[in-house]
Amino acid sequence: MTSNTGAHESRDLETGETVHLVRHPGSKWRISSYDWSWTNGLMLWTAQVFAQKLGWENLEFDTPGAAYGFVEQQLKEGKIPSKGTQHRAAFAKWLAREHLVFDKRLTLVVYLPGGAPEDEVRLLEVNTGLYPEPGNPIVPVETTPAVTDLQFRVWVADVTPDEWDQIQANPGLLPPGWSLEGRQTIRRAQ
Amino acid sequence: MNARQVAFYRQARSDWSIFRHFHPRGFRWWTAVRRAWCSVAGVWVFSFPHCHELHYLQMCTEKLAKAYYRVPPRGHAAFRRFLTDLLLNPGAVAPLGFADAAGLTRWGGSVRSIVGAIEDLAPQIADHKGLPNPEYPWPRGAETDAPADHLFQAEVYSLLDAQARSGEPPFLVVLGKMVGTMQPGGWHL
After folding, report:
1. CA separation for the pair B159, B165 (Å, rounded)
2. Is residue B7 part of a domain?
3. ipTM
4. How far does B14 lie from chain A, in Å, by closest CA?
5. Bridge partners, A173 (sequence order)
6. A158 in contact with chain B, both atoms CB, cutoff 8 A
7. Helix boundaries (H) for A55-136
8. Is B105 on the interface with A (CB under 8 A)?
9. B80 is a domain residue
10. Three-state DSSP class for residue A36
11. Cβ neighbours of residue A181 under 8 Å, at least 6 residues apart?
12. Does position A1 have pLDDT exceeding 60, yes or no?
């Protein structure tokens, strides 16, 4: 539905992001950006993600609700940055570094946010001390610490260096639902 | 704990009791006293090769690690994975006798090499690394060395002794608390 008058509209999502829409005269609704804020000590920080950055600049929606629903779905599927993923990424990297410090057999840890639910951290750990029997599948293990206020469930899959090489060539070897999309590699501090 | 976890936990406790039969608390002191007394009395000292207690120690730790998780880690390399995650589990701090999480973390740093050494005792891992194991003669395919003839001093006992002198709680004492409290303390996953 188009209108001869322009308009702006914003909505706060339950996940903490605010989505901003725009409707130019004679056009349908478009997403202009979304953002979220957080405090760190006395500082207030805001992150803003523009539609152009995501290739959404030409997406049009008949109603604001459809546009908000689209953003919510993208957030839910972990396809775009979010308030949750920001904290999740920081937690995942911290956890990866802790694992690298304790277990010298780990050569690197790969954080895999692609396709993961908002409350899930997925780590792939390349382990030189792993000798799985032939045909032994790559099965992630839930390692969530028993902390009541932890926001995330943590899943870790150990793989051999050879398996990691194979996975990079064929991501289909990952556990079901896991993806290399958006992966972040954490290495041992020198 | 699910049924699989309970089964692994029960077996780990059983393995631990066998290990403690071979290696009771105050083992070094008791062994020295017994040997001295037996030599005076002219009695032959009955003892077992170290491989047997280490076999049960390795099995206990692997099963304890597999009892910790709802789904077990892959293969035999479970104990290091378990200790890595244990250090981030505040629920384990008090049952294992630590005053705070920092204490558990410090202890974790003191046992890193022991944890690796015990995990490497699993025959499959030891074979890959060219290390002795407490269960089967080695090297695989051309066996010439028997576990019963090996002292495992460099591989395990020197590490246990060094850690026990580090000022941190001795590894075997805390391992015993793990075996005793994982299920009743509810700090498993």
Report:
1. 10
2. yes
3. 0.81
4. 25
5. none
6. yes
7. 64-76, 83-102
8. no
9. yes
10. strand
11. A114, A115
12. no
What tokens does A117 get? 């639910």
User: Before A134, cis peptide (omega within 30)?
Assistant: no
Q: Considering the domain boundaries, does residue B186 fall inside one? A: no
The reported pTM is 0.75
> Which strands make up the sheet holding A43-50, listed edge to edge?
A7-12, A18-23, A29-40, A43-50
Q: What are phi and psi of B3, to 5 degrees?
A: -60, -35
Count of structural domains, chain B: 1
CB-based contacts of B28: which residues, under 8 Å, 6+ apart? none
Q: Which domain range does residue B111 map to? A: 3-181
**Mean pLDDT, range A116-130, rounded to an integer:** 92
- DSSP annotation of B184 reads T
Q: Would you tell me which residues 36-75 of chain A have a C-beta closer than 8 angstroms to some C-beta of chain B?
A: none
Compute the mean pLDDT over every residue in chain A, rounded to the nearest whole number. 87
Q: For tokens 């005053």, what's the residue?
A: B99
Q: Is A189 on the interface with B (CB under 8 A)?
A: no
Q: Does B106 touch chain A (CB under 8 A)?
A: no
- Distance CA(B59)–CA(B79), nearest Å, equals 10
A146 with B85: Cβ contact below 8 A: no
Per-residue pLDDT of chain B (189 residues; tens, 9 = 90+): 899 999 999 999 999 999 999 888 766 666 666 667 666 776 665 678 999 999 999 999 999 999 999 999 988 889 999 999 998 888 899 999 999 888 998 999 999 999 999 999 999 999 999 999 999 999 988 999 999 999 999 899 999 999 999 999 999 999 999 999 998 878 888
- Report how far residue B112's alpha carbon sits from residue A188's, in angstroms, rounded to the nearest whole number: 16
| Residue B97 in domain | yes
- Domains of chain A: residue spans and CATH: 7-76 (no CATH), 83-187 (3.30.460)
Which 8-state DSSP code applies to residue A173?
G
Facing residue for B71 by CB, picked from A98, A133, A139 = A139
Residue B2, helix vs strand vs coil: coil
